[in-house]
Write a structure and sequence with these properties.
The protein is α+β, with helices and mostly antiparallel strands and 274 residues long. It has a single domain, classed as Creatine Amidinohydrolase, CATH 3.90.230.10. The chain has 6 helices and 15 strands. The longest helix is centred in the N-terminal third of the chain and has 24 residues. The chain is globular and about 45 Å long.
Length: 274
């Protein structure tokens, strides 16, 4: 069952989403060559603690419980990278994915950050992945079914010569990080027959295109979490938590904007410093 959220519930999710957005802004402000991925993770953990927010990722069950509050994936790492002693280098692209729960509601977002001077084709990969997320957000109010949005996301990626990762998809989100529905960034026969869903008010989903420079294939590393491209080429990842509403598409993990005024979200009133 897909849960549809009320205005009050969406506002509560906006509080969590705003904290996640601020955490990623913090990452952007500190990331630089020489910093370890563990140091980036610690900064986000400290920030969530300061906000009274519960990290969503730390302790997620698996063969090894996930040990950090962020997934940090560098270059050929696609998703679920474990922060550690790896030092960020000039020319890297660093994907940082994180989420938190506050007052019982979740927010989840990711960004890929170029550090220094990556190669031109890698910068294009990052730009196209960001554009793909922006395209999806723009199309939500103009399409009836998610498959119609996903098809255009896939088309945008492939026309630039890149590939959409199909091993991982976006998801519904609410009181739990992962809820129904599954939200692919591509279309296939199975999804069209069994998984498609309408874009109706109250729907809240985490949209997260993952795009590879080369093959769409990925493989799991020995740490039981990190997924890397099968061909060793770079990958990029962007994500927002997004609500479909009668007033328009509401990005819950973005900066303050017109939709906050329409919905009545005032960060200070909700106990979040700007």
């Amino acid at each position: 069952m897909i849960a549809l959220r009320s205005r009050i519930e969406i506002l509560s999710m906006r509080k969590a989403g705003f904290i996640v957005w601020k955490a990623l802004q913090l990452v952007k402000s500190i990331i630089r060559p020489g910093l370890t991925t563990k140091e980036v993770d610690q900064a986000v953990e400290d920030f969530f603690k300061q906000c009274g927010a519960q990290p969503l990722f730390k302790g997620v069950p698996g063969k090894v419980p996930f040990p950090a509050v962020t997934c940090i994936s560098v270059n050929e790492e696609v998703v679920h990278g474990i922060p550690g002693d790896r030092r960020i280098e000039d020319g890297d692209i660093v994907s940082v994915d994180t989420g938190c729960r506050i007052d019982g509601w979740c927010g989840d977002a990711a960004v890929t950050i170029p550090v220094g001077r990556p190669r031109a084709e890698v910068l294009k990969l990052v730009d196209v992945t960001r554009q793909t997320l922006d395209l999806a957000i723009d199309l939500i109010a103009k399409r009836r079914l998610w498959s119609e949005v996903a098809a255009e996301m896939q088309r945008h990626v492939e026309k630039h010569g890149f590939s959409v990762v199909e091993a991982f998809v976006g998801h519904g989100i609410g009181r739990s990080m992962h809820e129904e529905p599954q939200v692919p960034n591509f279309v296939n026969d199975f999804f069209l027959k069994k998984g498609d869903f309408p874009l109706q008010p109250g729907l809240v989903i985490a949209i997260e295109p993952m795009v590879n420079l080369g093959s769409k294939r990925v493989r799991l590393c020995r740490d039981h979490w990190t997924q890397v491209t099968a061909d060793g080429k770079p990958s990029a990842h962007f994500e927002h938590t997004v609500a479909v509403t009668d007033l328009g598409t509401y990005v819950l993990t973005g900066p303050l904007g017109p939709m906050d005024e329409k919905f009545g979200f005032d960060p200070k009133r909700f106990g979040v410093s700007v």
